[in-house]
Amino acid sequence: MSNPLVIQGGMGIGVSNWTLAKAVSSYGQLGVISGTGLDRLLVRRLQNGDPGGHMRRALEAFPFKDIAQRIIEEYFVKDGKPKSRPFKRVPIFTYKGDKRLEELNVAANFAETWLAKEGHSGEIGVNYLAKLQLPTLSSIYGALLAGIDYIIMGAGIPIEIPGVINDLSQHSEAKMRLEVEGADKDENFFSRFNPKALFSGRLPEVKRPKFLPIVSSNFLASIMVSKANGPIDGLIMEGPSAGGHNAPPRGRMALDDQGEPIYGKRDIIDMGKLRDLKLPFWLAGSYGTPEGLDEALSNGAEGIQVGSPFALCKESGIFPELRNRLISVIRNDNEKISTDVNASPTGFPFKVMNVGETISEKTVFEARKRICNLGYLQHLYKREDGTVGYRCAAEAPATFKAKGGELTEATARKKCLCNSLFATIGFPTVYEDGYVEKALITIGSSLESVRSILEGHKDYSAKDVLDFILKKID
Q1: Range 6-317+458-469: architecture per CATH
Q2: Using alpha carbons only, what angle is made at residue 377 by residues 197 and 207, rounded to the nearest 5 degrees?
C-alpha cells in the first residue's frame, strides 16, 4: 500500500473503535483504532453480553487459547449485566507489574486490531499516548500479534518507541524509561515487558509495523528525527485546532480573556524546515476538507490526519443517543468549543464541547465525587522511602495532597478523563450508591466540514467523510 492520503484520527477511549477503523481502511485510507483503555473496554463489552459475539470471536483467534478462555470465563455475562450493577473491577497498572493484567492487555489489543483487520486487505494503525506509560509495552505487543501495520503515538516525545517496536517484533524483552516525579537526575526507572517470560510455547512470527509520532512543532520533529533509538517512517504534525490533547504553547503559558491558551508564532509549523527532514509527513488540525487536503499536498505533505468528522460518523464509538445530540447541535451551528487547560490531569490542554448533562457543565462536574479508580493518567512519583507512588490531579484533593501533590486553583478544576471517556462511548462506571459517571465531549474546534457533509442528510458514514475530503482527487 502506498502512503495514505487520509489518516483517520485515533480518538478517545473507544471512539476510534475497530468498526470505524475497518470502514476507513476498506475504502482505501488508513483506519486507526484508539489503543487507550482497551483492557477495560474488552471486559466491559463482555460484561454487557458481547452483542454480535465480536469480542469472543477475536479471542478465539488469540494465539494463547488458555488465556483467552480464562478471560471469557471471568468476564462474559450472557445477555449482559443489569445496567445498575457495577462492572467487575480490573486492576490498575503499576510499576511492579501484574501478570494477569498484562495478559489481559495483550489480548485486548490483539482483539481490537484483529477485528479492525478482519475481512479486507487494507492497512490498520493504532494510536497510543506517550503519557500513558505503564500499559504501553504490553499494548504494543498485543497489536503486533494481530498484524498491526502502523503504530502512531502522541501526547509526549516517544523517542524510545522505535527501539521498543524493534525488540517486541523479535519477541525480545523491551524496556522504556519512566517519568517519575521527584527522582534524582541519575536515577532511572524502567517499565519492562518480556513476551517469552509471559507466554510459554512457540511465539508466532510478527512483522515490524511503521512508526509515526505525532508532534506539534519543528523543534519536536527535529528531536524525534535526531534522538529516536530506531527508524521513524513519517511524522504527523498536529496544530492547536486539533481535538483531544493539544501540546501547550511553546514558551511561557499565557491565557486569553476566556482562559484559553494563546498560541503564537513559535507554534506555527515551518513547512520548509519540515520538508528538510526528508521524511513523509501528514498535517492535522482543521485540514479535513478538500481545500485542506490541497493545501497539505501543496506544502509537500503525503496527506492529512482527520479526526472530528470521523468521531461523529455512524461507525464511531460515541454512544448513539449522545452522537445524535451532538450532530443536532452542530447542524444548527450551536456548538461551543473551548480549549480547557485544566480538563486533563496530565497538564495538556484539551478541547471540550460544552454540552448539557456532561461534565463540561459546572453543576454536573461539581456533583461528581472526585476519585481516581481507573488510573490511566496517573503520574508516577518517588516516595520518601524510594518506592514509586501514583497520584492524579483529578482525584480527591486530600488524597492528592497526602501523596505530595500541590493543591492549586487549577487542581480543583481537573477532570477525570478516564471515567468520562468511557461514559462517552456508553460504558460508564456505575457505583454501588447509584451514581453513574457522566460523559465529556472532546473534539476539534473546526466543524465546518461536518456541516458540509451533513447538508441534505440526516446522518453520515465514514465513506461520506472520505468522499467529501477526496472529491477533488482523481
Answers
A1: Alpha-Beta Barrel (3.20)
A2: 40
- How distant, in Å, are the alpha carbons of 38, 51, 221 from that of 126? 11, 23, 20
Which grid cell is 368?
461528581
Report which residue type is found at 11.
M
| Pairing status of strand 235-238 against strand 210-215 | parallel
Buried b (16+ CB within 10 A) or exposed e, 210-246: bbbbbbbbbebbeebbeebeeebbbbbbbbbbbbbbb
451 neighbors 333 (Cβ within 8 angstroms): yes
**What pLDDT score does 255 carry?**
62
User: CA–CA separation, 39 vs 41, rounded Å?
Assistant: 6
Please give the helix or strand (H or E) that residue 281 lies within, else none.
strand 281-284
CB 285 within 8 A of CB 447: no
User: How is 226-278 classified by DSSP, letter by letter?
Assistant: HH-SS----EEEE-TTSSSB-PPPSSS--B-TTSPBPP-GGGS--HHHHHHT-
Asked if 43 and 90 count as a contact pair (C-beta separation under 8 A), the reply is yes
- CA-based end-to-end distance of the chain: 17
Instruction: Take residue 12 and report the three cell numbers written for it.
Output: 478517545
Give me the residues paired with residue 278 across strands. Answer: none
Amino acid occupying residue 203: L
Q: Tell me the three cell numbers of residue 144.
A: 503486533
Q: What is the dihedral of CA 291, 296, 297, 300, to 10 degrees?
A: 160
Whether 250 contacts 266, CB under 8 Å? yes
Residue predicted with more confidence, 443 or 275: 275
Instruction: Tell me the three state secondary structure of residue 212.
Output: strand
Provide φ and ψ at 104, rounded to 5°.
-60, -45
Q: What is the DSSP letter of 445?
A: S
For Cα atoms 240, 365, 362, give the angle at the middle one, nearest 5 degrees.
80
For residue 214, is pLDDT > 90? yes
pLDDT over 90 percentage in the chain: 81
Q: pLDDT confidence of 474, banded at 50, 70, 90?
A: low
pLDDT value of residue 312 = 96
**Mean pLDDT value across the chain:** 92
Tell me the C-alpha distance between 145 and 18, whole Å: 16
Structural domain boundaries of the chain?
6-317+458-469
The pLDDT of 84-113, averaged and rounded, is 96
Cell 476498506 locates to: 26
Q: How far is CA 434 from the centre of its chain?
A: 28
- Residues 333/441, Cβ–Cβ less than 8 Å: no
Structure confidence at residue 200 as a pLDDT band (50, 70, 90): confident
Please tell me the distance from the alpha carbon of residue 9 to that of residue 306, in angstroms, as a whole number. 5
pLDDT digits (tens, 9 = 90+) for 411-439: 888 999 999 999 999 999 999 999 999 99
